[in-house]
Amino acid sequence: MLQVDGLCKAFGDFQAVNGAWLTVRQGDLVAVIGPNGAGKTTLFNLITGHLQADRGSIRFREQEISRLPAHEICRRGIARSFQIANIFPRLSVFENVQVAVLSAKGLSRHLLHPTRRLVREETEGILERVGLQDRRLDLAGSLSHGDKRILEIAIALGNEPELLILDEPTAGMSPEETAATLALIRRLAREQGLTILFCEHDMEVVFNVATSIMVMQHGSTLVQGPPLQVRADPAVQEAYLGRD
Amino acid sequence: MESSFSLAAFLGQFLVGLSRAMILFIVASGLSFILGVLRVPNVAHGSLYMIGAFAAHAIATALGNHPAGFWAAMVGAPLIVGGISLAAERLLFRHLYEREHLMLLLFTFGLALILGDLTKMTWGADYRSIVPPPFLQGSLDVLGTALPRYNLFLLLVGPAVAVALWLVSAKTRFGKIARAAAVDREMVGAIGIHVSWVFAWAFVLGCMLAGLGGALVSPTISVTLGMDHTIIIEAFLIVTIGGLGNIWGALVGSLLFGVTQSLGVLVLPQFAIVFPYLAVVLILTFKPTGLLRSVW
Amino acid sequence: MLWALGLWLALFFAPLAAGRFTVYLLGVILVTGLLAMSLNLLVGHGGAYQFHHGAFYGVGAYTAALLITKTSLPAWVGLAAGPLAAAFAGLMIGSLCIRLNKLYFGMIQISLGSLLWILALRWYDLTNGDDGIHGIPLPEALSGSGSAFTFLLAVVGVCLLAMHRILESPFGTTLRAIRDNPQRCAAVGIHVRRHQLTAIVIATFFAGVAGVLFVVLEGSVFPDMLFWVLSLEIFIMCLLGGWFTFLGPMLGAAIIVLLRTVVGGFTEYWTLILGVVLILLIFFLPEGIMGAGHRLRLYRRRAAGPPSRGGDRAAG
């Protein structure tokens, strides 16, 4: 579904991503791990078009997408959440998701239909799926940190994506919130048949949830494979897990 | 005969444009410096320029138009402007650093309105001008055109200010911190530097350059109300074509602006002021980020 | 919203009940308010640094004035052309400004708008420069002050209705989302710049309508309409009335116009007062009168009972 090859990106002298590769197949739940500064977020930003790669290719459904702008990549079926709570603080929770649904349905530019009658069911459905239906009329800016992160995922779901990219979905969450979020991610993958690519700090989390793990170090891909194989890989042990 | 005359006229206008560019540069570099560090386009910059000119006139007149009065004005006017800006920054502006960016910007708008009317209250709507010291009066004959000595003086002052500003921002501790704050203010705060004071001095330094520009321009034009409006718009344009926060960009932009305008006088005197705008539109159409890199 | 509709209908009787000057002042408030509301489309709802909105107001007014006085076209054509010219200017200047970040946007806009001001000032043969154009002949139906006011009120009503419709549409919701977080909008597949440019064209169109209404009201145009201090004044109206609300800018316009009329009798330092008002607003009332009122109601409702419909929309 998604195929990344030889991807490079430098900021000035700093080589943030330097030869990354990654394969995501339909239905996979792929985790990207690696120490801080390994280039995970940059990799995600490159895939979703928020940054332009210096070299390398990104193919989604057999088509090169590495030169496309962010909104175009989104239209092709890749949605994402961000590491920091990236929501619309002055809109209601409902509208936050509605904006994404309207965009997915190509209705964003309609001028004369009242918004409140459009895409109600789809939006309500997503809010119910993530468990935010009780907060739907609250201003998004007034939510707790954990709920904002969930809302992030809900906005991404509003795009009806085929591939969902989550950048550290549990960062800054309490243990209970983390557990709930992970359950949500697994449920989304199983019930909706969503393909999910995410990155995460917590090793326990990753090895429990992911069906495939890619390890990054100094901007390059060390290895990608099923959890057991990655755990056993000597290079990974040395570079990363060995220190635990 | 005909062609040599127009060559002389061309040269003359070119040099007039250059010296005008030096004033523009001094004002625009201050604007650009504040933009670079605080990320706020200081709309009050034009008013401070005007106050600089009025203050220079007041000082020079108080000293009875003695040659020393001119120099006192060139030093005193920027200091007065610096004092006003320091007061505005410490009393009001600094409380807004944590607020929405638009509020910072609107504050400088409010300051521009207030300072404009305060100038009117203090100095009134008369036209004034300053007499430069004797050795800067009269003209020099350069390649067959008479060039005012004062314009040549400006051609020396402009580059001197550019070099001084570069030295301050590249070689001093203050300059290094200010540049770091422009890129990443959290980091500067984290290593224990009082960012608020860095901002204050950057703001004051930038405003003093506006005051200096106003003082330097006062012998070449009549000092009057309304001179703030044109300069601020010109300075905005210069800074945008040069690249926000980039001092050298401000220099390039000023030269471009001053020279196109003064050469435009030869073609269409009534609309000379339109030419630099056209140049700017062209540049922004093809190179929207400005000619040189923005600092952030 | 019902009270606004009632007020609007009641105003149709103003020429019968009130004196000439009051009706004129109401006209000024309506025109300025429409201008401020069109600006707020971009500032409060779109989050753009539209700093020289007055330029488009001027373009609308000058287009109408020039077509009526310099050509033999019927006056109605001139009046209709004003908003279109303003929207076209909005498209041109907008597409130049939109390509960069907010700050560049604001600064380039002030500069290019000022270019139009300079043209109005210097192109003496066409515009009469500083003097402006006076005694613009209007269509028969608009020549009486009462009928001019009725026309003005009707047009403002239609415009407000249209703006309300637009803001409540998916386009408006998406616009507010862009205001809140343009990066996130791109990530949900919204073409941010195209959306903003459309908003600019719409807003400058309404600014052009306001400009034409100014011609109907005053029968003249001045270069000061394109001067950036006027743009700032309408910006302050948005801020004062409440820039996250729909009718706030109209309220702000009413307050500023009345204040200027009253204060203008005592002092020539109107800009000083305007500056002080602005700084007071920044420090004490950053969401404006209607914004603060809304917040207060929200707070009372929270304190009073279960948060059933606690945070309904900020746009009142």
Overview of this protein structure:
The complex is a heterotrimer of chains A (244), B (296) and C (316). Chain A is 36% helix and 25% strand. Chain A is α/β, with parallel strands linked by helices and 244 residues long. In chain A, helix 6 (175-191) links the parallel strand 7 and strand 8 (195-199). In chain A, helix 3 crosses helix 4 and helix 3 packs parallel to helix 5 (145-158). The radius of gyration of chain A is 18 Å and the shape is globular. Chain B has one domain: ABC transporter involved in vitamin B12 uptake, BtuC (Orthogonal Bundle). Chain B has a two-stranded antiparallel sheet with strand order 1-2. Chain B contains 11 helices and 2 strands; from the N terminus they run H-H-H-H-E-E-H-H-H-H-H-H-H. Chain B is mainly alpha-helical. Chain C is an all-alpha fold and 316 residues long. Chain C contains 15 helices and no strands. Chain C has helices spanning 2-11, 14-17, 20-43, 54-70, 75-97, 102-122, 124-127, 145-168, 170-180, 182-187, 192-218, 228-241, 248-264, 270-284, 288-304. The interface between B and C is large, with 43 and 37 residues.
The chain pair forming the largest interface, with residue counts per chain, is: B-C, 43 and 37 residues
Largest sheet of chain B: 2 strands, antiparallel
Helix content of chain B: over 70%
Morphology of chain A: globular
Which fold does the CATH topology of chain B refer to?
A: ABC transporter involved in vitamin B12 uptake, BtuC
CATH architecture of chain B: Orthogonal Bundle
Q: In CATH's first tier, which class of chain B applies?
A: Mainly Alpha
Low-confidence stretches of chain B: none
The DSSP helix count of chain B reads: 11
Question: Strands across the major sheet of chain A, in which order?
Answer: 6-7-8-3-9-10
- Classify the oligomer: heterotrimer
Query: How many helical elements of chain A?
Result: 9
Mean pLDDT of chain A: 86
Helix/strand-derived class of chain B? mainly alpha
Main structural class of chain A: alpha/beta
Percent of residues in β-strands of chain B: under 5%
Unreliable residue runs of chain A: none
CATH-scheme architecture of the largest domain in chain A: 3-Layer(aba) Sandwich
Span of the ends, CA to CA of chain A: 33 Å
**H/E order of the elements of chain B?**
HHHHEEHHHHHHH
